[in-house]
Amino acid sequence: MILAFRGRNYRISIAIDFGTARSGYAYQFFEDEGAKDPIFRNRWPDTNEFYPKTPTEILFRPDGSVEAWGHTARKRFTQLREEASEKGYILIENFKTLLHDGKDRDQDGPFIMRDGKKFPVVKLIAEFLQRIKEVALSDIAETLGGEGLLDENEIRWCLTVPAVWREDSKQIMRHAAQLAGLIGEGTQEAERLLLVLEPEAAAVHCQQVMMRQNQVALESGKVIMIVDAGGGTVDITVHEVRLGEGLDELVPCGGGLHGSKYVDRNFREFLARKLCAEAMDEFETQWPVEYAKLMSETWENIKCSYDAVPNWRSSIEMPRRLEKILETSFPEVLDRLANVQGGDNTVIRLIHDDMEAIFKSVVDQLIGKVRNQFTALEDRRCDILFLVGGFAESPVLKQRIRDEFGDRVEQVIIPDRPGAAVLQGAASFGVNPGVVIARRSTLTYGTKTMMDFDERLDHEHGQRISARERSRIFGTDFSLDGCTNRFDIFVATGERIPSNASVTRSYIIPPNATELTVKFLSTINPKVRYTNLEKDEITELSQVDIRFPFASPDGSPKPMNIEMQFGQSQIIAYAIDPISGNRERCEFRFSSSY
């Protein structure tokens, strides 16, 4: 992949950090590498705040077209509600996490049902990416002095993805980018898009920040841990800095679904207990804009200011629409609230114990994931821990990180504007993808194939086919029986994979075969031998259909090579005809249930 990247005349790297709660873009010209920081939009329409991202929300019209997006979506929906003309309009948010944990799926992947309408998540993402692309190109054109001064082929697009995502989720993101018009069809166009792992992007940014501040701080051999705590996920990577080369990943990345939105979920459950679950459901359903304002503005300000001191307290003014629901249908709730709040039922009071309970489960799980990475390092030291991402703004998380790990690292660093670290780092990564020189495989990957039957090893679990039958199928003589359920390992769990490395396997196929389905498999077991043992928990990762237009003219078996590249942030496979040299990129077709 590295050679292919260097072979194009890219002029600019444009990164889109597509987040659970918010999204934004940044760009860097190749000629500015090392001289200027990536540029990002710091102010979005219909808001007074200065922040590099806009809400990941879309408002759809009754006919299914997009009415508005970002901050404008919620503002426009509020206007429609005030005009009593919102019927048929649908506001959708928090759809990114469905790629990983969505339960409703079909052949196109996960989907959302709203008001009897089906919204495939891949198309929701594509709609949003298309609009960010348009804003980015417009802003860049203004910088350059006019439209038409930047050719599409000069752009390398970088799209961020969580490190904990599976390959099917990454492939859906790539498909969404194509639907959004970031890239076209074909192998050459596919290579114009990089999927950038969010913690790796943050690592690139943090390295650049430290190098500018103090070059000695990141001397060769230093080990850095990146804790990227976002809205939906936390991703944790550990790299060794090799000056003049790049970042070398030391252990497989860790993390999980422990982002700040799960703190929001706990707050929502707190309100359901304190007030009434039925009232909160009605408030959310009947007044979605007011509900969203409570959760994303009022609560967000409180969440980001809570510092865990014992005498902390705050109050939330009861939303008028929610109060009306309680007055009409649940008056006993207001009475109970007044009894515990000294006669005041116009606010919702929060004290330290409430907030501690709201934060505790999420922060504890996040801390546990960080601790796992220290355990994986074994005896190796970690010099610097960087905390980045939107959740890094939380005083509670900052303090817990320092308390838990301050004595295990030389420094805990939270860069200025931690929410922009991934965004800026992804743009820089696009200019120099070779900055990450090696990764660690989180799983064992391979294919199902037939190999020689080993009497010593395969007598218990191997599925045997006779040498005679094997010879008949492939049109050549075999002296040994075959084992049909072997797992051919391309790369094993925990294995170090250089970013410019590839793994190639040579196979033969029957002489009359015109089509072949190759099944790509994964497992956590680094020494897996068979494809059908329950203890190995084999997952069928994807299928690739390979077509061969001509049968073998002399009846001999046909050769075929499969090349897989693991060193980048996404698995890429090629089917190769070694006779003609024809090389076709394999488009993975992922199981919808995976």
In short:
One of its GO terms (molecular function) is ATP binding. This protein is of the alpha+beta class. The two termini are 27 Å apart.
Architecture overview:
The strands form seven sheets. Strands 13, 14, 15, 16, 19, 20, 21 and 25 form an eight-stranded mixed beta sheet that branches. Strands 1, 2, 3, 4, 11 and 12 form a six-stranded mixed beta sheet that branches. Strands 23-24-22-27-28 form a five-stranded antiparallel beta sheet. It is globular and about 90 Å long. A hairpin with a 6-residue loop joins strand 30 (572-576) and strand 31. Mean pLDDT is 87; it is low at 1-7. By secondary structure, it is of the alpha+beta class. The two termini are 27 Å apart. The chain is built from 16 helices and 31 strands. InterPro entries: ATPase_NBD, Hsp_70_fam. One of its GO terms (molecular function) is ATP binding.
